[in-house]
Amino acid sequence: MGQGPDIRFESELTMKSRPFGRLDLGIEMQKRLDGMVAIVTGGADGMGRATALLFAREGARVVVGDVDTAGGASLEAEAKAAGGEISFLRCDVSVEADVAGLVAHAETRFGKLDTIFNNAGIEQPVTPSDQVSEALFERVIDVNLKGTFFGCKHALPALLRNGGGTIVNNSSVSAFANVGGNLSYAASKGGIMSMTRVIAIEYATRNIRCNAINPGVIDTGMNRRNLDLAADPAQLEQKWRSITPMGRMGTGDEIGEAVLFLASKQSSFITGIGLLIDGGRVAT
Ligand SMILES: NC(=O)c1ccc[n+]([C@@H]2O[C@H](COP(=O)([O-])OP(=O)(O)OC[C@H]3O[C@@H](n4cnc5c(N)ncnc54)[C@H](O)[C@@H]3O)[C@@H](O)[C@H]2O)c1
Questions:
Q1: Fewest Cβ atoms closer than 10 Å to its Cβ: which of 49, 68, 69, 220?
Q2: Measured between alpha carbons, how far is 252 from 220 in angstroms, rounded to an integer?
Q3: Atom of ligand 1 nearest to the CA of 48
């Protein structure tokens, strides 16, 4: 004890100091990502958007790639109004050239890359496994698994040029626990866990750490769409609460804090893990 900064204390202060690290007292606080350049895919909405805004508040210059150009424009404006820097580029993560362009944009615009959050993903509408079409399976795998592969593949050379950095991949509790009716989604998220471990081990001695997060039920557009499609939305919401020991959905901000930890030096001896952020669900 007594060595290094009190990270918990610093984090509490920084959170209270929103927006962008200035306390009401007028004291400039140390920002947790000062000087860093980050990419967030799927950052126009949901937990990606919350994470991109948190990264910008904490001093990072952030490149966001997403297919939602209106959401991207409003994100840029929201960050700018609060004194942060987010640069949006249209990017479909299932298209390799788009992802290569996203990484190139970060290096051209901000000079380097320190971290990438491979977050973009789509749900599989609840479907019995013997009725999942080839097209549905391929689309979910293309965006979730292949998109994460492209993000890792094209970020790695940039991180090596930078002398190191971090990758955070968005998996899911679906990689570990049956959620029901989501075969292609679970397969994609299990694949992301395996890919995360392969990269972590392969680049461990080159100052690149690669980790995943495994969110439980989070209150985002994805789950609002799942509710809209449910025969009985109230019953589905109640089910989500009952399978989560903490009795509620998580928030994008709670995901952002965990991603920030894995992206930053605060997690300097952690690589190859999947961090459950699930209100206790997988522990039951
Ligand atoms: N919501 C949950 O409960 C939950 C739980 C576990 C994991 N996840 C994962 O979290 C990630 C973010 O999901 P969310 O809940 O914030 O969903 P969301 O739908 O709110 O946000 C997803 C974002 O990804 C973008 N996107 C979709 N397809 C894309 C593509 N091909 N290229 C680029 N961007 C694309 C969307 O436009 C959107 O901005 C996903 O990978 C999802 O699988 C979500």
A1: 69
A2: 7
A3: 16
- Tell me which residues are annotated as active site: 185
Name which residue sits closest to atom 25 of ligand 1, judged by CA.
42
Query: Do strands 115-118 and 85-90 pair parallel, antiparallel, or not at all (unpaired)?
Result: unpaired
Q: What is the DSSP letter of 248?
A: S
Question: Domains in the chain, start-ordered, CATH in brackets?
Answer: 26-283 (3.40.50.720)
* Global confidence as pTM: 0.92
Which tokens is 140 given? 């979910």
Task: Give the pLDDT of residue 24.
Answer: 54
Q: Which of 173, 218, 223 to mutate to test the pocket of ligand 1 (most atoms within 8 A of CB)?
A: 218
Measure Cα distances from 13 to 17, 55, 62, 72, 84 in Å: 6, 16, 22, 29, 18
Cβ–ligand 1 distance for 44 under 6 Å, the answer yes
**β-pairing verdict for 85-90 and 61-66:** parallel
Residue 270 Cβ inside 6 Å of ligand 1? The answer reads: no
Quickly count: other Cβ atoms within 10 Å of residue 208's Cβ. Answer: 22
pLDDT of residue 201: 98
CB neighbour list of residue 16: distance below 8 Å, 6 or more residues apart: 23
**Would you give the end-to-end CA distance of the chain in angstroms?**
33
Cα separation, 284 vs 281, in Å, equals: 6
**Do residues 220 and 45 touch, judged by C-beta distance below 8 A?**
yes
- Phi then psi for residue 72, to 5 deg, are -65, -40
Residue 164 confidence class, pLDDT cut points 50, 70, 90? very high
Q: Using one digit for the tens of pLDDT, what is the confidence trace for 126-162? A: 999 999 999 999 999 999 999 999 999 999 999 999 9
48 alpha carbon to ligand 1 midpoint, in Å? Answer: 7
State pLDDT tens for residues 8-60: 333 333 444 445 545 555 556 789 999 999 999 999 999 999 999 999 999 99
